[in-house]
Amino acid sequence: MLKKRPPLLLGTPLAFIAWPLIMNFFYRALCRLAWLALLTGASVHAADTPRQIITKAILAESDDARIATIGSLVGQGDESIKILLAAWKEDALFVYTAPDGTRTPVQLTGEKDAKEAQEAWRVDDGQPLKDAGGQPSRLVGSALTAVEHDSNLRRAMKAVLDLLDLSTTDLEKRVRAIQTIGFAQNPDKIAALEARSKLETAPKAKLALREALALIALKDQSDDVKIAALVELKELHTISSTDFLKATIASPEAAANPKLAQAARSALSAVDNHISWVNFFGTIFRGLSLGSILLVVALGLAITFGLMGVINMAHGEMIAVGAYTTYVVQNIFGTGLALSPFGMSISFPGFHATGWAYESYFIFALPLSFLTAAIAGIAMERTVIQWLYRRPLESLLATWGVSLVLQQFFRRVFGSNNVQVSSPSYLSDNWTFNDIIFGWNRVFVIGFAIAIVFGVWLVLTRTSLGLLIRAVMQNRNMASCMGVRTERVNMLTFGLGSGLAGLAGAFLSQIGNVGPSLGQNYIVDCFMTVVVGGVGNLPGTVVSAFGIGLADQSLQQILLNPVLGKITVLIAIILFLQWRPAGIFVTKSRSLEG
Amino acid sequence: MSAPASTRRIEIIAVAIAAILVIVVLPLLNAHGFISNFTINLWGKYLCFALLAISVDLLWGYTGLLSLGQAMFFSIGGYMLGMHLMLMIGELGVYAQAGKNPLGLPDFMVFLGHTFLPAFWRPFYSFGFSALMVLLLPGVIALVFGFLAFRSRIKGVYFSILTQALTYGGSLMFFRNDMLMGGNNGFTDFKLLLGGDLRNAVPQRNLFIASAVALLLVYVGCRLLNHTKFGLVQRAIRDGENRVLFSGYAAASFKLFIFVLSALIASVGGALYVPQVGGINPSVMTPEKSLEAVVWVAVGGRGTLVGPIIGAISVNALRSWATRSIPDLWPFLLGGMFIIVVLFLPGGLISLPGRVSGWWKRRTAVVAVESAEKPAVVTTTP
Hints:
By secondary structure, chain A is of the alpha+beta class. Chain A is built from 25 helices and 9 strands.
């Protein structure tokens, strides 16, 4: 009659979770490859490496040839350029003439020894200069020909160095360099920026270049140039340009020229508009992700409390069980774990996995967290709760006792401090779109919530276990008369609810701290979510979780104070229950005590 | 439901003896040096906890409402008197002694950079006003919250969860520094109360006596209340609220009255607790503290008036011992005690004598039946 298949059925949501992860990995690997190909393609245009070009410049006969050779470095981003040109300016470059007459430019570095000799490095390949015997040789600077430099050459070098950071292959660094130049508003850099604009291919850097050029143009003498820049800034509406726009509005030029003031104001309002959209969507995103967290933690409770009527105050500790399971799994994948609970010492050997093998621990931790918490829940049901089905208030008290015991147990086993659970890289990154930051873990929790709600819905409506659960919850005596083994259904339902709490814990370990009192932070919110949604009603729980999440985040945005926001939400919930005492969705029943 | 007359007489005599012992004998012994100040102080604390336990029991044991908000009312009472005590520190405070606090602000305000006393603090210079607020503020909060909750017929578990949320919200509020109630450090370092120096033995002894008298008054008052028709309706609500409603009683008004009354009792307990312990902070306000008070009641025996007192004193005495000798095992002990009491001893310690005598009677009955060689029918309800 009773098919015991919840773990297998919950495999469905797990597959839902794993699939995007795998796809994400491949997608990123592909992107990285494509990017690499692009980069190498871009720098192949010069046959010589920057070091070789500098070598040529040093050995060039005339000053003009030197300046021209150095000038050919403009637009390249190699780190060696910075080092070598700096050494050149500091008179640390010399030309070494070998006995056979070949001239090799070298850089002398390090402490001078008793003979005033220093280490010599070849400029053309960055390797130590070797003597005939193949040993690194030490040279005395005064015995060599120093490489000279005049003001024209230094100017040419400066042009290269200005553009150096703008040309670095690291996109983030390049964008930062462009922005720094833009914020400094130095008109001298316009040439460098324009030179880079011609080479730049990355859209993000292109936008940054346009912004930087427009910001510098704000310092221009001519009002027409300024207005053109303002039009450009209006089109770009970057948050970083706010202060510059405000400064322009306040400037005497704007007071003299209403057209200019008008353009600046219109650009500023475009930026403000953009900011309010960013805040709006950011709040919605944070609200959705908070709602998903609430949903994930409250879904298990919706089953144990909503369907079974058991007030499980130890629900929070079931969450902590899941979180600690993740911690243990992570350490087993890593360097192993030694625990010393109650004077014993238990040690788990580690796999010493690295890279992707290590980061995949989370995929294994999810089902294990479910299982551990489900087993803990079933043990609790068998020992304590099964005697209290008809006494909800007593179940509240007894499970609170269990929660105290479990918390102290965590303290004794894992220590009273928070433990470190490191997020796998595919969860710790974020993705910025239109200035709105989407943390991968936040995006993932939304998907995760959808997946487990779908999984629970499948279990409850499409399996025989679900049918039995619903039958027992609707009318225990009738189900029992029909031959359903209600005791076992109770046990499995409670296991399912606790297992879901464990899954939530695995996820919370990626978002917040894992400590003995982890569960206590969520228990009030969990109960609120279930009560507001309407007890015994899973769709209600979904609606109320997202409702509370969005309300909380918007109130935080409006009141600018997280605690005040939270208190307001609690008061709002109390008032809401005045209006709908049985929650959003009422489970209709003819029973008086319903 | 009412106990037999003989049991009632035993209870009255026992309470009278205990009252004389606590109110007269213990302070006398302390004054003559037979009992240490520390012990008196500790027992004073237990008596305040007993007040909190009675307030929980009045709701849970007699009306069937498990409120997890009692710790909040307890701490609000404490905070209200605490504000007066903070202002009484005046020139004795750390900053004032260092000459940095000419206006005699509470130290935490000076620390937060305030230069004048906020308006809502000023009336608390008067002890009478503070004492009034000890009753008024929790009373009003309980009235508003209770009115809203009972009007929409929130009961049972929902009531517990809502009061839990209320307490949680309250603690969040008091944890904030800009509430100007001391943030997470709360109030501490009290010096004077009504001219007596709280660091000396005599005012502490007087506080102990005051706590004992308050407990006795509350006990007598609740006892009288239980014997009125009001008490009967109260218990009827616990046992069958719908029947009470259908009989034409406004159950919500009855519940509201009890809720406000027990908030006041808890608040008075808190107000007496703070000067004896020498401080209050928001961690007393958490839902967990309310649940602990529920443990005392459950251990002592709910639905009785002596039970909560016995429970509060015995559990706290156990805690004082355990947190010193086996601090790591105390949560196991508390949690385990809770599970065991709920599962195996729903009537609490107070029901033990009855259970033992019941067991003894049954045993003798079985023996008598067996000797008569008849099938035994054993009734289990006491």
